[in-house]
Write a structure and sequence with these properties.
single chain; 2 domains; seven-stranded mixed sheet; 15 strands; globular; binds NADP nicotinamide-adenine-dinucleotide phosphate
Amino acid sequence: MKAITYSCYGPPNVLKVKDVEKPVPKDDEILIKVQAVEVTKADCEMRSFKFPVKWFWLPLRCAFGLRKPKRQILGSYFSGEIVSMGKDVLNLSAGDEVFGAAQLRLGAYGEFVSLPASYTIVRKPENMNFEEAACVPLGGLNALHFMRLANIQKGERILINGAGGSIGAHAVQIAKSLGAEVTAVDKAIKKDFLLRMGVDAFIDYTKEDFSNGDKTYDVLFDMVPRSAYSKCINVLTPNGRYLSGNPNLAVMLRSFFTSRFTNKTARFAFAKETREELLTLKQMIEDGSIKPIVDRVYTMQAAPEAHHRVETEERTGAIVIKIGDRQSD
Ligand SMILES: NC(=O)c1ccc[n+]([C@@H]2O[C@H](COP(=O)([O-])OP(=O)(O)OC[C@H]3O[C@@H](n4cnc5c(N)ncnc54)[C@H](OP(=O)(O)O)[C@@H]3O)[C@@H](O)[C@H]2O)c1
């Protein structure tokens, strides 16, 4: 089978399409013919081995491969079709069109991937094509996790910092579906995209600081690493909630003191990405609460361009690679 592989860490052009061995499913696994995969920031970080959290470099390097990557086929969030399965799999069938997450097994940059049936993989919503569906699991699962933690009530005001990314764009849609008034913070090229996703107000962070002025928020969902913690807490209403999806050690520590000694709550979390959450997202897609966020679709050969577009943040929405030689829907 063909797969986009990388045999050394480096710039986008280390990605090469090669012939590799097709995986064989174990008894508890499903073999999926991958149709589309989202290109994420994490894919680019694993490829280049440049991570925002510097102190974690050595443990990560040991885990991913000291001299060269141990897993040479990237790809975590995908859509595809089940072609066969091991004898112990009962919950899915050959022919099912699915979407989901490959977790740390990765491998969805290849034409076939074999994954445990217990992973977060469910039937794809009928009203999304493969490319659109592949863009949901990363952003949708993480956003849903945080929006549930925020316990948003109808009419509450939420500010989403970093709203133009995969997680932010889904958080916008989920918050709107819960009846919140949403203010999005990101840079100007993402404004039209975010208005299409339904935001009520937009702040361009390159021109304006959201903490200036009198406006306060019941919830602040922060996706931006190194954002100013005190400013975030200061714009909360009494009893307001701050949620960090990208906490550093200082934020973790300060969150404890905020929640313990003030009437505001600060929390950080790492999403679990469960099947129940993916089924909820499927339902939200089918009832129209979540719309597709695709920016551009690339072929396997154009994987370096796809990575470049994610790294340079020219995108407005999600970047997808169509796997195999199928025509796009
Ligand atoms: N806690 C968890 O469980 C969890 C899980 C997955 C991912 N994450 C983390 O969550 C973050 C967001 O993920 P994602 O996939 O949505 O990332 P993403 O697609 O890169 O989105 C981040 C967005 O924030 C914008 N941004 C950058 N600096 C900003 C600033 N100062 N103010 C406002 N917006 C700013 C970016 O725009 P520009 O860069 O173009 O300005 C981009 O639109 C990542 O850092 C990821 O590591 C956390």
